[in-house]
Amino acid sequence: MKEKLKNIQNNFKNNPKIQEKLQEMKPKKTIWGFLGIVLFFFVPEIINVLYYKEINFWVANSASLYYPPELAEKLVWVVGKTFNGEISFVNLGLGFGFLWWLYK
């Protein structure tokens, strides 16, 4: 089994078509790539840490006005779990990983 995996790995390393496809898949070093990563991974974490109380209050208030009680309760619970004021290290790790991949 180890030999089979080594053969597959060597095939990936030595196959020029696969290497060409990997280079095509790599993002280009542009400001849009950087901004996309920052806006998708880092800005939501900053908003979560700074404004989680306001977001939870707004959702609870609007849910109680517009939705039936069972649905409003579930919506408030989900938003409370999502916006809890804690930093997601998985999200930040993915963001830093993509930035490293972008500028590697």
Q: Could you explain how this protein is built, in words?
A:
The protein has 104 residues and is an all-alpha fold. It has a domain at 40-103. Helices cover 85% and strands 0% of the residues. The protein contains five helices and no strands. The chain has helices at 2-14, 16-25, 31-66, 69-82, 89-103. The longest helix has 36 residues, at 31-66. The radius of gyration is 22 Å and the shape is elongated. The two termini are 32 Å apart.
Query: What value does the Rg take, in angstroms?
Result: 22 Å
* Helical content class: over 70%
* Overall body shape: elongated
Overall pLDDT: 90
Low-confidence stretches: none
Oligomer state equals: single chain
SSE order in H/E notation? HHHHH
Q: Distance between termini?
A: 32 Å
Q: Quick one: biggest sheet?
A: none
Pairing-aware structural class of the strands and helices?
mainly alpha
Count of separate DSSP helical elements: 5
Number of strands: 0
Strand content: under 5%
